[in-house]
Design goal:
Length: about 200
């Protein structure tokens, strides 16, 4: 398995050399970070969660880099969706850590809920999700497109359901349901982003 992983890492990096230098730098940076995720990043409170959220948002940055070969020439919508993906992803990751506290303790890991407690972690995660919801309404201020607005309202409604579930009852069942709703919200968010291709 280790040799297979190393081979796929190498093939992935080789394929990046066929794109451009900026895309290669992004791919190399995340390949290195992912290599240290299980052994190091995952064991540092918030850092591991931020890496996962970053891996969700970097897809938008990477796509922009493929087209522009730059980290400074950003499309407005790329920045907005990268921000949405990061904040919602980080909020979701923190909620997931609440489900895994017992297992993480047995594994000798230290997570944010162990440091802050369940309630403060829920508040922080919900705040991050609210930021993502607020950011989602920036595109219509720049260019109104009804299909996007409809889809993003559905996504935001699902995120609000997630926060309601965990704020008013962060038990195992509520966290499981919140996780499922968050997957639906992420999917609707992707559809909203894709709809802008037709605007």
């Amino acid at each position: 398995a280790l040799y297979s992983a190393a081979l796929f890492y190498l093939l992935g990096l080789m394929s990046l050399t066929q794109v451009n230098s900026t895309a290669f730098a992004i791919g190399l940076a995340f390949a290195i970070l992912s290599f240290f995720y299980d052994s190091l990043l995952k064991r540092i409170p918030l850092v591991g969660n931020a890496f996962i959220a970053g891996s969700m948002s970097i897809a938008f940055i990477y796509g922009n880099a493929v087209l522009t070969n730059s980290l400074s020439n950003f499309n407005y919508f790329i920045l907005v969706f990268a921000g949405m993906a990061f904040f919602s992803g980080l909020g979701r990751e923190l909620l997931i850590t609440l489900r895994d506290v017992k297992g993480d303790k047995k594994a000798g890991m230290l997570t944010l809920p162990m440091l802050l407690g369940k309630r403060k972690t829920v508040i922080l995660a919900s705040t991050l999700i609210y930021i993502a919801v607020a950011v989602s309404f920036l595109p219509p201020l720049y260019s109104f497109f009804l299909p996007y607005l409809i889809l993003v309202i559905i996504a935001d409604a699902l995120w609000l359901v997630v926060t309601k579930l965990v704020i008013f009852g962060a038990g195992a069942d509520a966290l499981k349901r919140a996780r499922n709703y968050s997957l639906y919200a992420l999917f609707m968010g992707l559809l909203a982003f894709a709809s802008l291709a037709f605007s």
